[in-house]
Amino acid sequence: MSSRLFSAARRRTWAILLAPSARITSQTPLVRAIATAAGKLSPTPFAPHPGTASPIIQKKTFLHRAASFTGRILLFTTLGLIMAAAPAYESAAAILSPPSDADTLDAFTPQDDDAKAKEDYVNSHPLAASLRANPDLIESRPHMKIPASWRRHNLTGGTLSGPGKMAIPPFSWTERNGKSYVQITHVGTDLCGHMGIIHGGFLATMLDEGLARCCFPVLPFNVGMTAKLEINYKAPAVADQYLVLRATTVKVEGRKAWVEGHIETLPTEEGQEPTILATASALYVSPRQASVQHTTEQQRSNVTWHPSLTRHERNQLRGQRGFTVWFTGLSASGKSTVATALEQHLLHIGLASYRLDGDNVRFGLNKDLGFSEKDRNENIRRIAEVAKLFADSSTIALTSFISPYRADRQIARDLHANASQGGDDPLPFIEVFVDVPLEEAEKRDPKGLYKKARAGEIKDFTGISAPYEAPESPEITIRTDQLSVEECVHKIVAYLAEKGLITQTQETR
Q1: Which strands form 241-253's sheet, in the order they lie side by side?
Q2: Is 403 a catalytic residue?
Q3: Which of 403, 420, 465, 484 is catalytic?
């Protein structure tokens, strides 16, 4: 429901309640319903003809008075709820359907002559004219995309805006490919630290927001969080002047973007050189959770889940339960070796299982992926989805992947936990940490990868030039430097039997 509809409803309601009594008649259904509920009019649909005697007014019974009082309560409670809910609907509508960049240019109306003068000055400045003439730049006023009801809770969009502070929302120009960004802002006398000098913290906030907006177009799902910000102050920023922020994206790698920028004065006359007030460099990272959360309403509306057999029915018909055993650990820790032995054992005791190996899937399903952090994340996401499908088919899925990041393994776990349809139980997810010291894994090095990584021939190699985040609470931990392969398999099988995931532990064929 749109905010305009709620506003109209509120105006109509108050018009009825506050109207003179001479205007309240039983001619409209809405008026009759309200008046009847409030006990003001008789609920009978018939009115006496002019000139006829009025009906005798009988004394109301206790039940009649109680019903009338209850009607009043329900009426005014409903009206109160409608009026209280209207702002929430307005905010929701603004979030779900934010204004376009072009719309934000007309969203601000100066409230006084001072704000209007500042608005006109920026619009008529040669820098603004040159930026508008560049077809690769998109002009907007980002703060005007914040819903009005939320703006007062936003630092730069509300708290630091207004007379004496930022009297007008900043004008921004963003290069379509996210390479550069320019912003023009006026800073007032109420943003000072020392008398007449803009507070350094405000300049830092400007740089943080401006550099972030520069790189958003190149980050996954156009969102990022500040991971690092370094600022060098070059000169005092005098209050009550116009400032220009310039930023450039210098490097992009997967979910990470490095940006450099500075704040300078806006020249007041032709040929004047700007003064650089502060420089900054920053690193922004797009959250891993964004890949899971980023499903638009349009995508949802075009995709429909088609129900099939329930998971319980499949398990009964196949005589086993599907689940995923997720092996994680350093390269050469023994993940694939133990997973292969476990697959053989499960097949020999009559249970369908299938192993998804980190190397094997890169020959087909994931052959388009490399080893950057972004590609590693996508590699694990795809495997988690495939393992979930195997488990849903009442097959035991065994995955052996380094999967170095906790967040990626948590996504895999969550996919299984949320895979319930029609009241089915979640799919079990068993994380097996194949724990060996780095020195032991490097000593084994069956593929010679550690040697190449040490020589600099392989970049982003887990354990050497890229991190491995060990599980904090895995279901099972095995030390392949202390246990044999058979002992590792026995430990895993014993756990599965203890949890009721399998009932047969000895070979039957």
Answers
A1: 137-140, 171-175, 180-187, 241-253, 256-265, 276-285, 225-233
A2: yes
A3: 403
